[in-house]
Specification:
This protein is an all-alpha fold. It has 3 helices and no strands. It has one domain. Helix 1 packs across helix 2. It is flat.
């Protein structure tokens, strides 16, 4: 699916009263998801063990 098709699908799912800010935020989220999936396809993912090790430093207390 092309980037334009994804944007059209996202906009189509949103309510008629959605603001431009909400639409932009949703498209930005989908762009991040697509980028993450592409990284995984290229083998650039982070192993679960590394995430589990690093996670405590990511959490705000």
């Amino acid at each position: 699916m092309s980037a334009k098709e994804i944007a059209i699908e996202v906009i189509g799912r949103m309510g008629e009263d959605s603001s431009l800010h909400e639409i932009a935020r949703e498209i930005e989220f989908m762009a991040g998801v697509q980028e993450g999936l592409a990284e995984l396809d290229r083998g650039e993912g982070v192993p679960l063990e590394q995430v589990e090790k690093d996670l405590p430093s990511w959490v705000i207390k």
